[in-house]
TrEMBL record:
Keywords: Glycoprotein, Hydrolase, Signal. Pfam families: Lipase_GDSL. GO terms for molecular function: hydrolase activity, acting on ester bonds. This is GDSL esterase/lipase. The lineage of its organism: Eukaryota, Viridiplantae, Streptophyta, Embryophyta, Tracheophyta. PANTHER family: GDSL ESTERASE_LIPASE, ZINC FINGER FYVE DOMAIN CONTAINING PROTEIN. Belongs to the 'GDSL' lipolytic enzyme family. Gene3D superfamilies: SGNH hydrolase (3.40.50.1110). Residues 1-36 form the signal peptide.
C-alpha cells in the first residue's frame, strides 16, 4: 500500500523490497511460459468485497445505485466491471494466478461440478462475519446482510454437488485444496462506524467477530481442510474515507511516518492480535493442519511507509471519487454523482476511498506470497510450489 538498487533492507515490520526486487517478484507472478502444474488443485475463498470476484452482481445486479456493477470499476485489467470492488485484480486473483490456477470462479456463476474444477469463491461485497441479529440484539440498526454463515451454507451446497453420493468422497479434495478464510470482519466494524455507533461499543464486538472466524475455520477442518490462510484486517486508519470523515486538528491523532489515523490503526491491530491468539489455539488443537495467518496489516503498511518502492505516488488518496486531499468527498463517490477518475490508477493506494487499488493489492499479495507476511510462511507450507520458491528467492 515500495530507485534503482536491488538489495533488500530491513524496516519495522519486516524486510521490504527495493524496486528491482519488486519488479522481479511481479515478473514471477506474471510469468507464463509452458503451463506449470498447479501448486494446489483448488482454491476456496470466503470473505467480503476485498475478495469478491463476482458474486455481488448475481445478488444485486438490478440495483442501479451500485457503482461497482459498471465501469470505471474493472477498467485497469479486465476493461469491464466484473463485480470486483477495485480497478482490477484482487489478492485472491494474484494468489490463484501464482498457484497456476485460473481466477477463482464466483460460486453464484456456476451450475455444474465441472464449473468448480479449480475451486469456488463465496465472498460477497458487503458481507460480515456475524449475522445481523448479533447487531440488532445490541441496539445497532442493521438490515438483512450477507454473512459468513450464508457463505458456509453455500459451501455445504457445493459439497453436495461435487460429492452427491457420499461427503466422504470429498475428503481427498478437501485435504489438497487451499482455503482462504477472509478477509472477513471488516464490515462488522465499518457499518457501525459509518452509523456513528460509539467506538467503545464497536470494540466490544471484536471477540465475537474473531470467534466466528475461528468457528468457521474449525468447521472447515472438520470437513477435511488441511491448509487454510486466515487474513487479518487492513490498517483502516489509512482508508481515505475514514481520513476524511474522522479528520482531526490534533497532530497526535496521526502517525507521523504515514499520515494514517493512529487510533483507527490501533483498533485494526487489536483485532489482529485477538485473531493471532485464536489461530494459535487452533493450531494446538489441530496439529496436522496448516493454519496460516496472513498479515494484511503488515504488508499494507509497507506500502504506506514507502509508497515509492511500489510505484505509488498517492498512498492515502483514491483514484476514483470526489476530489479533495484524499480523493473523496461527501457529495460524490466513485461511479456515482459528479465523481472524478485519475489518469493512472497504479499511482494510487486506494481505488474508490474504501477499497485498495490493483497496485496496492499486488503489493500486498507479493508480501504474502514470498512468505514475509504469512505465519507460518506460505512459501514453505506449500513446499511443492516452484512458483512460490522462485518468488521467495527474489527478496
Amino acid at each position: 500500500m515500495a530507485s534503482s538498487a536491488s538489495v533488500s533492507v530491513s524496516g519495522r515490520g519486516g524486510g521490504f523490497l527495493l524496486p528491482a526486487a519488486v519488479l522481479l517478484a511481479v515478473a514471477v507472478i506474471h510469468a507464463r511460459g509452458a503451463p506449470a502444474a498447479p501448486c494446489v488443485p483448488r482454491v476456496f475463498s470466503f470473505g467480503d468485497s476485498l475478495a469478491d470476484t463476482g458474486n455481488f452482481p448475481f445478488l444485486y445486479g438490478n440495483d442501479s445505485r451500485e457503482p461497482a456493477l459498471r465501469t470505471p470499476y474493472g477498467e485497469t485489467f479486465f476493461r469491464r466491471a466484473t463485480g470486483r470492488f477495485s480497478d482490477g485484480r484482487l489478492i485472491v486473483d494474484f494468489i490463484a494466478d501464482t498457484m497456476g490456477l485460473p481466477f477463482v470462479r464466483p460460486y453464484l456463476s456456476g451450475r455444474t461440478a465441472e464449473d468448480f474444477a479449480s475451486g469456488a469463491n463465496f465472498a460477497v461485497g458487503g458481507a460480515m462475519a456475524l449475522g445481523p441479529d448479533f447487531f440488532r440484539g445490541r441496539g445497532v440498526p442493521m438490515g438483512d446482510r450477507m454473512h459468513l454463515g450464508v457463505e458456509m451454507k453455500w459451501f455445504h451446497d457445493l459439497l453436495d454437488l461435487l460429492c452427491p453420493a457420499d461427503r466422504a468422497d470429498c475428503m481427498g479434495m478437501m485435504n489438497q485444496s487451499l482455503f482462504l478464510v477472509g478477509e472477513i470482519g471488516g464490515n462488522d466494524y465499518n457499518i457501525p462506524l459509518l452509523s456513528r455507533v460509539p467506538f467503545e461499543k464497536i470494540r466490544t464486538f471484536t471477540p465475537s467477530v474473531v470467534a466466528k472466524i475461528s468457528s468457521t475455520v474449525t468447521e472447515l477442518i472438520g470437513l477435511g481442510a488441511k491448509t487454510l490462510v486466515v487474513p487479518g484486517n487492513l490498517p483502516i486508519g489509512c482508508v481515505p474515507n475514514y481520513l476524511m470523515i474522522f479528520k482531526s486538528d490534533k497532530k497526535e491523532d496521526y502517525e507521523p511516518e504515514t499520515g494514517c489515523l493512529r487510533w483507527m490503526n490501533e483498533f485494526s491491530k487489536y483485532h489482529n492480535r485477538l485473531l493471532i491468539d485464536e489461530l494459535e489455539k487452533l493450531r494446538k488443537l489441530h496439529p496436522g493442519v496448516s493454519i496460516i495467518y496472513a498479515d494484511y496489516y503488515g504488508a499494507a503498511m509497507e506500502i504506506y511507509r514507502s509508497p515509492e518502492q511500489f510505484g505509488i505516488d498517492h498512498p492515502l488518496a483514491a483514484c476514483c471519487g470526489g476530489g479533495g486531499p484524499y480523493g473523496v468527498s461527501m457529495t460524490a463517490r466513485c461511479g456515482y454523482g459528479e465523481y472524478k477518475v485519475c489518469d493512472d490508477p497504479q499511482k494510487y493506494g486506494s481505488w474508490d476511498g474504501f477499497h485498495p487499488s490493483e497496485a496496492a493489492y499486488k503489493g500486498i499479495a507479493i508480501g504474502l506470497l514470498r512468505g514475509t507476511y504469512t505465519q507460518p510462511s506460505i512459501s514453505t507450507t506449500i513446499s511443492s510450489c516452484p512458483q512460490l520458491t522462485e518468488l521467495g528467492s527474489s527478496v
